[in-house]
From TrEMBL:
Residues 23-91 form the UDP-3-O-[3-hydroxymyristoyl] glucosamine N-acyltransferase non-repeat region domain. This is UDP-3-O-acylglucosamine N-acyltransferase. One of its GO terms (biological process) is lipid A biosynthetic process. The active site is at H243 (proton acceptor). Keywords: Acyltransferase, Lipid A biosynthesis, Lipid biosynthesis, Lipid metabolism, Repeat, Transferase. Gene3D superfamilies: Hexapeptide repeat proteins (2.160.10.10), MurE/MurF, N-terminal domain (3.40.1390.10). InterPro entries: Hexapep, Hexapep_transf_CS, LpxD, Trimer_LpxA-like_sf, UDP_GlcNAc_AcTrfase_non-rep. The lineage of its organism: Bacteria, Pseudomonadati, Pseudomonadota, Gammaproteobacteria, Methylococcales. Catalyzes the N-acylation of UDP-3-O-acylglucosamine using 3-hydroxyacyl-ACP as the acyl donor. Is involved in the biosynthesis of lipid A, a phosphorylated glycolipid that anchors the lipopolysaccharide to the outer membrane of the cell. Signal peptide: none annotated. It holds the Pfam family LpxD.
Length: 332
């Protein structure tokens, strides 16, 4: 079991220690569940009230903390408690699943595929013709990568992921279990002869560097050209990204949200859980779409929109307040 003193932890965090404790720290834990050998964090002042009943020996706190640690307990004061806690989690992280060999004997690797140095391929994987895998790429069991794809350096692809033909994934990416990259876009048109005619989807998907795609999420290929996910984007589980959509850098999409076809997101856009964006809409840099909202038009840069259909946040809040008053009045 890993354990660290508060001084050893602070060597990593480079914060300011308030209080004292000689307790060795054996794990991080949320503040309500932590025991006397664990470290927690207070990332918001509203959680200070839990410290009095918590058993944690140490908490990572922001610089504006307004309470004292108490007897034989300590705080590590930092500029950003959330980011500091992520460093602590890395200290205590258990090892990743092990590989007995670099390429498992049950993996099927086409003779034309190119393997980078240090690449590891798990049991039951399929690597198609002309695939290029970068250095230190890890494919866990039962990953499928079809023809002419490229995968960058240090990328991790978890079990069950499927990457369709001609798609390109950058460096330092993580694809979680059962994610699908490059499925056909949802394209059909009424046809007198057959009812619905399928529109061929002949484009691909291009994913930048340091992108994370959650479990069971799907990024559809372009009808023509590419669906593009910019550098640093973070996509939650169960997210749908439609064909020919283009995400800028560092966008965030929470679970069950979705983009219809040809949506454009600027840099730093945040899409809340279960929000949906109409096809061909443009969401400007830094805009926020609240959870459960339905966006049916463009959103200017920096704006926050809420509701179904989504409107500017302050307008939505006024509408809800008026509706609440009307309902209360009708009951009188």
């Amino acid at each position: 079991m890993k354990s660290y003193s508060i001084l050893e932890i602070n060597e990593v965090l480079k914060g300011v220690i308030l209080g004292t404790t000689n307790q060795k720290i054996t794990a991080p834990e949320q503040i309500e569940l932590a025991n006397s050998s664990e470290i927690s964090f207070i990332g918001n002042k509203k959680y200070e009230k839990f410290w009095g009943t918590s058993k944690a020996a140490v908490a990572i706190v922001n610089e504006d903390i307004s309470i004292a640690p108490g007897l034989n307990r300590a705080f590590i004061k930092v500029k950003n408690a959330d980011l500091a806690m992520s460093q602590v989690l890395k200290l205590f992280a258990p090892p990743m699943p092990l590989f007995d060999c670099e390429i498992h004997p049950t993996a099927v690797v086409d003779k034309t595929a190119v393997m980078g140095n240090g690449t590891r391929i798990g049991a039951g994987c399929y690597i198609g013709p002309n695939v290029v895998l970068g250095d230190n790429t890890t494919l866990y069991p039962n990953v499928t990568i079809f023809d002419d794809c490229t995968i960058g350096n240090n990328t991790i692809i978890w079990s069950g992921a499927v990457i369709r033909e001609r798609c390109h994934i950058g460096n330092d990416c993580i694809l979680h279990p059962n994610s699908t990259i490059g499925a056909d876009g949802f394209g059909f048109r009424p046809c007198p002869e057959i009812g619905l005619a399928k529109i061929p989807q002949i484009g691909n998907v291009i994913i930048g560097n340091s992108v994370e795609i959650g479990a069971n999420s799907c990024v559809d290929r372009g009808k023509f050209s590419s669906t593009v996910i910019g550098d640093g984007c973070k996509i939650d589980n169960l997210v749908q990204i439609g064909h020919n959509s283009r995400l800028g850098r560092f966008c965030v999409m929470a679970g069950n949200s979705g983009l219809a076809g040809s949506v454009t997101l600027g840099d730093g856009v945040v899409i809340g859980g279960s929000a949906s964006i109409k096809d061909h809409a443009t969401i400007g840099n830094g805009a926020i779409v609240g959870g459960g909202s339905g966006v049916i038009g463009d959103v200017p840069a920096g704006k926050t929109v809420l509701g179904y259909p989504a409107v500017e946040a302050r307008v939505a809040l006024k509408q809800w307040a008026i509706l609440k008053r009307l309902v209360s009045f009708s009951k009188k």
